[in-house]
Amino acid sequence: MRAFSLLEAIFASFLLSLIFLLFYQSYISFTKNKSMFFINQDIFELEKELENNNLAQKHIELYIKNLDTLGFSIEEASNENFKFYSIKPNNTHYKQHFKDEKGL
């Protein structure tokens, strides 16, 4: 009878060690995902700042032989981890040559 209870104790300790190992692995996975969440939140806030605010702009003119001059304005949003740039054309006269996405 004592040998059977010794086997039960060994099996129970082995089973508990597996359970705690799974809890530890899930905790490690959770902390990694949590840090990725904060990185994604930083990126989302910078994108929102670029879309909504009028930040300091730089203007670039591109001269191409036999074509019109292309002008671009560049905006920058940054924090301690990332730097985002938004490049927008100044004139949109080229849009009349392209169809819309429906093909009409």
Topology:
Layout: H1 2-52, E1 57-62, E2 70-78, E3 83-89
Antiparallel strand pairs: 1-2, 2-3
Features:
alpha+beta; 104 residues
Could you say which overall geometry the principal axes of the C-alpha atoms support? Answer: rod-shaped
> What is the mean predicted local confidence, pLDDT?
79
Strand order of the largest sheet: 1-2-3
Largest sheet: 3 strands, antiparallel
The share of residues in extended strands comes to 15-25%
Number of strands: 3
What does the radius of gyration come to?
30 Å
Distance between the termini: 86 Å
Order of helices and strands: HEEE
SSE class = alpha+beta
Helix percent reads 40-55%
Compute the number of helices.
1
Low-confidence stretches: none
Provide structural commentary.
- By secondary structure, the chain is of the alpha+beta class.
- The protein has one helix at residues 2-52; strands at 57-62, 70-78, 83-89.
- The chain is built from one helix and three strands, in the order H-E-E-E.
- Strands 1-2-3 form a three-stranded antiparallel sheet.
- The model has no long low-confidence stretch (mean pLDDT 79).
